[in-house]
Amino acid sequence: MPNSRLHLTPYQRVRRRAFEIMDGAVVDKYSRFVEFFVALLVVANVIGIILESVPEILHAHAAAFHAFDVFSVAVFSLEYVLRVWSGGSKYDIGKPATPNGQAPETWRGRKEYIFSFYGIIDFISTVPFYLQLLFPGADLRVLRMFRLLRIFKLSRYNSAFEDMVAAVKAERDSFSSAVFLLFISCMLFSSLIYIVEGHAQPEVFPSIPAAMHWFSVTIIAGWGNVEPVTYFGTVLVVFTQILSIALAAILTGVVASAYTAQVERREALYEMELREVLADGVVTEEEQEHLKALQAKFGMSDDQVAALVAQMEDEKRVADSKN
Amino acid sequence: MSTPVKASFQTRLMEILDGSPKHTASRYVEWLITTVVLVNCTAVVLDSVPEIHAKYQNFFHALEFWSVMFFTVEYLTRIWSLGAKFGPAEGGAWKGRFQYMFSTFGLVDFFATMPYYLHFFFPYIDLRILRVLRLLRLLKLTKYNTALQDLFRAVYSERKAFGSAVFLLTIATIVSASLMHFAEGRQNPKDFGTIPHSIYWAIVSITSGYGNVEPMTKSGEAIALITGFIGVCMAAIMTGIVASAFANQVARKKAAFEAQLRDVFEDGLMSDAEEAGLKRLQAQYRLTDEQVQAMLLRAQNKASTKG
């Protein structure tokens, strides 16, 4: 790795190092420190936002809260600027420098960060504070809401969120069909109950949107707090409640099978890597480290890995004896 | 079918309306129909709000008129173009047409559109029935959702397990409703006066848990708690069945794909045609590239150990 950055100018090398630290591309004690510090500050911010909403606490410590907010915004602004600046180094490894000393794809890396999910989160969770300085009369509640977005900065350091997104993405067809089912049944049932009960209980079902509200409550909580008065209405309510169990079952089933598939996919990936490593018959130290890192990332147990290795050795023995 | 030119146009139209991936136009047709259906459903919902209805009545009328025209043209085009499905030897033009007209989607298309014309003939017909039938247009969308059809197939393949779950649910409902009627019918005639009333209570308790009617006797309390507990068990059983149905379906698809792979590797090499076939199968089964890669490696390994 170090050889590949020989062509970089000193400025680029500094920027590259900043990128590695900020992005966690190379895990060392500096990047760990940045990660820990940002995470700590985010947690402190969220606690601060919650405490601020209690009037007594806010009145007693208004100055402290304000000072803390200014400090946080300063740190997060610095973080944002550093990330944008160092993002220019994302693609400079292995590329020749242009005569003016700039690596060719400086803005590609930066744009990628600025328009990524976390780039947008970093931006809109910090910038509203400056708006407040420019427009002192702005509605503070909206700004406070944006501040709460800082909590998403944490998910950068936690793979659980990404796992979930990946699992859902892989099964997006099943999810969308479950959502579609929910949508169709919402339209059908709320229209039907409006038609059947709208005349009998105009205060509960004055329009289809009102009936959709009833449907949502019934589907989520199982009991919409409305007594039907007609016989057909009773039948509809009963069906809606049974549907609520069925939809919950379908969604749970989809999630369960999505997670199972995700685990399988990872095992397949690990198996692929393992095969590649074992293909030449020699396992170098570097390869071993790589496998260890992958195992930790995928959360696989030692037993699983041992079983895979044993299986592969068996296969090899069979192949050798045939040859 | 008098000239070949007309026949080929008819065939193409049939394929486009059928959503065949051969033509780019079929995707536009799909989008257009989906959009019109969604606009229609939004209009039905908004039209039911009295304030909005008073203000935009004319607009909603015009929208309904033009949508019905659109769906009528769609329906007639489908019927006409499906004449090309079977040649004269296979049963003639009307075989394909009847097949469509009496299929689920054909009936949905018909009943979602045609009732509009009824009120030209019967001006005093109850409009609410027409409105219900208009909602059938939503079901037109299911034609384009293959994942939904997958879901139904998964549920269908586990229909025995579902049947027994429904059977259990029925028994639990009737038993707890009857018990509750005998225990509390006299103290609380409003909720438990008859067994049908108690059945309503039992279904609510099983689906959404204990608590919508406060029991008055000790035995009633016990029955209500047990009914609530049965509800939790029912939810667990249903969830388990659906989850295993999904898992089984995924396993089935993978097995089918793997069998195909093994066929391909039988002769030790993969031709372009074979590769394209596998790609199509992968898209159809919605397998990810990694899954396929892993299977490919396994198949290659098997082939090399055999050879």
Q: Any chance you could write out the topology, listing elements then pairs?
A:
The complex is a heterodimer of chains A (323) and B (307).
Chain A: H1 10-23, H2 29-52, H3 55-60, H4 62-87, H5 106-114, H6 117-124, H7 128-134, H8 140-148, H9 159-170, H10 172-197, H11 208-221, H12 231-279, H13 285-298, H14 302-322
Helix pairs in contact in A: 1-2, 1-4, 2-4, 4-5, 9-12, 10-11, 10-12, 11-12, 12-13
Chain B: H1 4-17, H2 25-47, H3 50-81, H4 93-101, H5 104-113, H6 115-121, H7 127-135, H8 146-157, H9 159-184, H10 189-192, H11 195-208, H12 218-265, H13 272-285, H14 289-306
CATH architecture of the largest domain in chain B, please? Orthogonal Bundle
At CATH level 3, the topology of the largest domain in chain A is Helix Hairpins
Strand content of chain A: under 5%
- Pair with the most extensive interface? A-B, 52 and 51 residues
Structural class of chain A: mainly alpha
User: What's the helix-strand series of chain B?
Assistant: HHHHHHHHHHHHHH
What's the assembly state of these chains? heterodimer
Listing every helix as H and every strand as E from the N terminus to the C terminus, the arrangement of chain A reads HHHHHHHHHHHHHH
Count of distinct strands of chain A: 0
CATH topology of the largest domain in chain B, what is it called?
Answer: Helix Hairpins
Radius of gyration of chain B: 28 Å
Helix fraction of chain A, binned, reads over 70%
Number of domains of chain A: 2
What level of helicity do the residues of chain B show?
Answer: over 70%
CATH class of the largest domain in chain B: Mainly Alpha
What's the number of helices of chain A?
Answer: 14
> What is the residue-mean pLDDT of chain A, rounded to a whole number?
80
